[in-house]
Design a protein that fits this description.
The protein is α/β, with parallel strands linked by helices. The protein is built from 19 helices and 24 strands. The protein has three domains: about 230 residues, 4-Layer Sandwich (Glutamine Phosphoribosylpyrophosphate, subunit 1, domain 1), CATH 3.60.20.10; about 200 residues, Glucose-6-phosphate isomerase like protein, domain 1 (Rossmann fold), CATH 3.40.50; about 150 residues, Rossmann fold (3-Layer(aba) Sandwich). The strands form four sheets. It has an eight-stranded antiparallel beta sheet, covered by helices on one side. The protein has a six-stranded antiparallel beta sheet with strand order 5-6-7-8-12-13. Strands 16-15-17-18-19 form a five-stranded parallel beta sheet, sandwiched between helices. The structure holds 2-deoxy-2-amino glucitol-6-phosphate. The site of 2-deoxy-2-amino glucitol-6-phosphate has 15 residues, from helix 9.
């Protein structure tokens, strides 16, 4: 939700922090700031608005020093403003901090500090940390930092500097933080892309481990200052993966990366011989699975819709009951869950607070846990006994695209594995599915080839206020994802309905010129029923965009435009259809002049509940 970068070394801290913050702007972008130790004082500069506002100022008024911290913010406590932007400093500016997360007991701490004479400049929860460290400071920043952190409740990645010491100290709890290990320089950041230009060796920080970064290197300890060991993780993916690479937006680049991402997710995992589905970090045996009475899939947003598609696939091929829930609801509804439940968490970032809390709840209730995530070493991955990495590569755009398609691939893999475990999927049928899954990358490429056509169709959305996404069966889940994509980046009010449900109320919203997007990834009887639903829509004067498999296209003239999907095996047009929906949303947003990669009010990784 917020981006943190810190630097200690011999170079200009300002330049390194700004370049790192640029890579992290997807994490928050309503204000940005920097604090640099310049000789015996800390200079703090922070502004409401995009990082470019801060950059513009610093370009004319640079701050010189080689120790510093910086931040891009996504507001939680206090509106976006210069005062609420990070860093936050003690009254005398001797201590400066940046923070990601929420300090739950900040009101109580603020009252205590106020009674001691501390004066607050912002409405944020973070500011208490700066004053608290100042309060405990007796000449050793790490000592004061550990004492202050001991008072905090909530989730935090917290980084601090002092005007009196040549060091940076930091800690994390339920909020991502990594440390970059360079030659004669060290970095701290919310995510790897921020440091990749300078080093590939990083520590993926564990909760409650304190780090001290000095000119001599990095040392780690617990709250009693006992040394802690951490393995160095060597990053193998390329910095280029986290840049736009010639595309106008990260979102478009990531849409076009999908054939590659899908191939990466499948690599070494699917084979017609042997076990057919080979998953590393996966300990769930056939016996374990067959003892399970229910699968529960929990996630947020796009990942949740991937989970809904997973429900469809697992129930169909493994005949096991699957419940799905959005993570923010799951743990508060006293879910029926025990040691015979398989709990699956899906999260691109692996840091989504609600998903993580759901996972912890499920573990506490005794469930077996499997996480599907894209980020190695993320909190969700670290807390799960079984992990299925999606290997989509870094996803920067707020709107999730390649993460979604690779999550769907994970769902196919599980549906086949569980189908074979349960005995409901024959070897022959599994082989058929495997063959058709291996054609998915090509079919996605075919759809990507229709970019010009889809760009033209997106003009239909240029001046509308409402859009409707309909489908039946698994296509309803796709409609939900299509509708989310449309609303989050183009700000068009979009709703998804089961096609057959329209006539029970929502059809009243349709009028001359309304746009209805219908997804139809299969043929057969249900296809005819969808066509009847489209006639009802058409009769109300709505314009129909039909996304349908070749051969199942409209032959009654009910569609205004048709985007055809390649002929594919049963259930294999889910991903090509998702790509069409992504491109429709993308071009609608571009045509309306929206900031595609950084939609208003949103952040890539939502690390608060
Ligand atoms: C989708 O485009 C959004 N960015 C959002 O719904 C996202 O999928 C959700 O916040 C979950 O994130 P996660 O996969 O990192 O947990």
């Amino acid at each position: 939700m917020c981006g943190i970068v810190g630097y200690i070394g011999r170079k200009s801290a300002q330049n390194i922090i700004l370049s790192g913050l640029n890579k992290l702007e997807y994490r928050g972008y309503d204000s940005a700031g920097i604090a640099v130790k310049c000789g015996e004082e800390i200079i703090e500069r922070k502004f409401k608005g995009r990082l470019s506002v801060l950059e513009g100022f610093l370009c004319d008024n640079p701050v010189h020093g080689n120790i510093g911290i910086g931040h891009t913010r996504w507001a939680t406590h206090g509106a976006p403003s210069d005062e609420n932007a990070h860093p936050h400093s003690s009254t005398d500016y001797s201590i400066s901090v940046v923070h990601n997360g929420i300090i739950e007991n900040y009101v109580q701490i603020k009252e205590e500090l106020t009674s001691l004479g501390y004066v607050f400049r912002s409405q944020t929860d973070t500011e208490v940390a700066a004053h608290l460290i100042h309060h405990y400071y007796e000449g050793d920043l790490l000592d004061a930092f550990i004492k202050a952190v001991g008072k905090l409740k909530g989730a935090y990645a917290l980084v601090a500097i002092s005007e009196k010491e040549e060091k940076i100290v930091c800690v994390r709890k339920d909020s991502p933080l990594i440390i970059g290990l360079g030659e004669n320089e060290s970095f701290v950041a919310s995510d790897i892309p921020a440091v990749l230009e300078y080093t590939r060796d990083v520590y993926l920080m564990d909760d409650n481990v304190f780090a001290e970064l000095t000119h001599d290197g990095v040392s780690l300890c617990d709250e009693n200052k006992h040394p802690v060991q951490n393995e160095v993780y060597h990053v193998t993916w390329d910095a280029q993966d986290a840049t736009k690479g010639g595309y106008e937006h990260f979102m478009l680049k990531e849409i076009f990366e999908q054939p590659t991402s899908v191939r990466n997710t499948l690599r070494g995992r699917l084979d017609k011989i042997g076990d057919k589905v080979t998953l590393d970090d996966f300990r769930l045996t056939k016996e374990d699975f067959n003892k399970i009475s229910k699968v529960y899939i929990v996630a947020c947003g796009t990942a949740y819709y991937a989970g809904c598609i997973g429900k469809y696939l697992i129930e169909k091929y493994a005949r096991k009951t699957v419940e799905t829930d959005v993570a923010s609801e799951f743990r508060y509804k006293d879910p029926i869950i025990d040691e015979n439940t398989l709990f699956i968490a899906i999260s691109q970032s692996g840091e989504t607070a609600d998903t993580l809390a759901g996972l912890r709840y499920a573990k506490k209730m005794g469930a077996k846990v499997l996480s599907i995530t894209n980020v190695v070493g993320s909190s969700v991955a670290r807390e799960s006994e079984n992990v299925l990495y999606t290997w989509a590569g870094p996803e920067i755009a707020v709107a999730s695209t390649k993460a979604f398609s690779t999550q769907i691939i994970a769902m196919y893999l599980l549906a086949i594995k569980f189908g074979l475990y349960s005995g409901n999927l024959s070897e022959e049928k599994a082989d058929e599915l495997i063959d058709s899954i291996y054609m998915l990358d090509k079919n996605i490429e075919t759809v990507l080839g229709k970019i010009g056509e889809i760009e033209g169709i997106a003009h239909m959305f240029e001046s509308i206020k409402d859009a409707f996404f309909i489908g039946r069966g698994v296509d309803h889940y796709l409609s939900m994802e299509g509708s989310l994509k449309m609303k989050e980046i183009s700000y068009i009010h979009a709703e998804a309905y089961q096609a057959g449900e329209l006539k029970h109320g929502p059809i009243a919203l349709l009028e001359e010129g309304s746009v209805v997007v219908c997804t139809l990834t299969y043929g057969g009887e249900l296809c005819d029923k969808v066509m009847s639903n489209l006639k009802e829509v058409k009769a109300r004067g709505a314009k129909v965009v039909l996304i349908a498999e070749e051969g199942n296209e409209d032959n009654d003239g009910v569609s205004d435009v048709i985007i055809s999907l390649p002929k594919a095996h049963e259930d294999m047009n889910i991903l090509p259809a998702a790509v069409v929906l992504q491109l429709l949303a993308y071009y609608s947003a571009v045509n309306r002049g929206c900031d595609v990669d950084k939609p208003r009010n949103l952040a890539k990784s939502v690390t608060v509940e």
